[in-house]
Amino acid sequence: MEARIITLPGDYIGPEIMREAVKVLKRVAQKYGHSFTFEERLLGGASIDAYGVPLTDETLAACNAADAVLMGSVGGPKWDNVPAAVRPEKGLLAIRKGMQVYANLRPCRIHPQLAGACPLRPDIIREPIDIMILRELTGDIYFGKRSRSEDRTQATDEMAYSVAEVERLARIGFEMAKKRRGKLCSVDKANVLECSRLWRETVQRLSAEYPEVEVSYMYVDNAAMQLILRPSQFDVIITGNLFGDILSDESAAIAGSLGMMPSASLGDGTRGLYEPIHGSAPDIAGKDIANPLGTILSGALLLRHSLGLEQEAAAIEKAVSEVLDAGFRTPDIYSEGKEKVGCIRMGDLVAERI
Ligand code: IPM
Ligand code: MG
User: Fold this and answer.
1) What are the catalytic residues?
2) Residue 40 placed within a domain
3) Is there a domain that residue 114 lies in?
4) Which of 143, 103, 134, 106 is nearest to 271 (CA)?
5) Are residues 158 and 223 part of one domain?
């Protein structure tokens, strides 16, 4: 098949990890007879430096016209003092909103080869851990009105959700649970927040349409605790933008390394935005030691969800697993007795196994 992919390498380690992911996707194209074209654009700090804004209208339009978008990471100390309206992160939020990718899939699985990197006690992770965190991505306090009082001593951030926003996200969650282990946990703070009460009512109403899915409701503070006490109880978790941001970092820590974690952001139709969940890691940029696997695995999700290439997606995931089996590790996942490799070598090793 033919596909046009926009790449947004972003800042600091972004370009390094992106090169490896593109290398692997090109190898997939060659092996399976596809024609992928890659068009690189600027996002975040790189875009601020070139155009004065973290996301230009042209870049957003190009992303909306492409078959899929693969992103590296944005932000870093260089832009810490720019005005809030043009911060690198603003570009990320604007592209999510502009592409209307409201469903953020953040899978949490412990690669058996990396079980030693999980900070939880072995008896806690004896049962398999395979959680899909489905985070709402274009609403909530992230996109509400913000203000500061005239004397600058009081600040307000508005949290808002509509039934329609909750419903479209929850439906994806129910459908996903049906294809997995049939369990859906909706996480909110309905004991305090009106948005959460609306969220819970909406999920409760929808649940009648999915009798085969076992639904539970959990307050976010308890969910944060349950994730480390008994993570195997979770299958699909649906939650809002803010809670999902926090719980997905927690789940990444459980999986052992932030560097391994891919994500997919989907809207209606097949268009999607794919990115590793880690940040731009300014401290290790330019040293060829970043872990490209989160971006490479995001590439696999791109093939699966936007291009419908399941076999090719699985081939990337299998190649990553084989590289780990063979004992190769970037420094962030290194342990005694393994072979330490850099970012470029890690990309080569995965590509070779496709
Ligand atoms: C994430 C990040 C972003 C978010 C930041 C960089 C704006 O933490 O993708 O989880 O909060 O969504
Ligand atoms: Mg985050």
Assistant:
1) 142, 189, 221, 245, 249
2) yes
3) no
4) 103
5) yes
Contact between 29 and 62 under an 8 Å Cβ cutoff? The reply is no
Q: Are 149 and 184 in contact (CB under 8 A)?
A: no
pLDDT tens per residue, range 42-86 = 999 999 999 999 999 999 999 999 999 999 999 999 999 988 888
Q: Is 71 in the pocket of ligand 1 (CB under 6 A)?
A: no
Q: What is the gyration radius of the CA atoms in the chain, in angstroms? A: 20
Cα 348 to middle of ligand 1, angstroms: 29
Structural domain of residue 194, as residue ranges? 119-255
Q: What is the pLDDT at residue 134? A: 98
Q: What's this model's pTM, rounded to 2 decimal places? A: 0.93
Mean pLDDT, residues 291-308: 97
| Ligand 1 atom 7 nearest Cα | 89
CA atoms of 336 and 175, how far apart (whole Å): 42
Give me the number of domains the chain comprises: 2
> Nearest CA to 261 among 71, 72, 109?
109
In the chain, which ranges are continuous DSSP H helix? 14-32, 45-51, 57-65, 88-98, 163-179, 194-207, 220-229, 241-255, 293-305, 310-325, 343-352
| Structure tokens belonging to residue 14 | 């972004």
Q: Report pLDDT for 83.
A: 87
CA distances from 79 to 24, 75, 85, 90, 107 (A): 31, 7, 12, 12, 30
Range of lowest pLDDT (35-44, 133-142, 254-263): 254-263
Q: What is the pLDDT of residue 110?
A: 86
Q: Which helix (H) or strand (E) holds 264?
A: strand 262-266
Predicted confidence band of residue 258 (pLDDT cuts 50, 70, 90):
confident
Ligand 1 and 245: CB distance under 6 A: yes
Which of 199, 227, 255 is at the close of a domain?
255
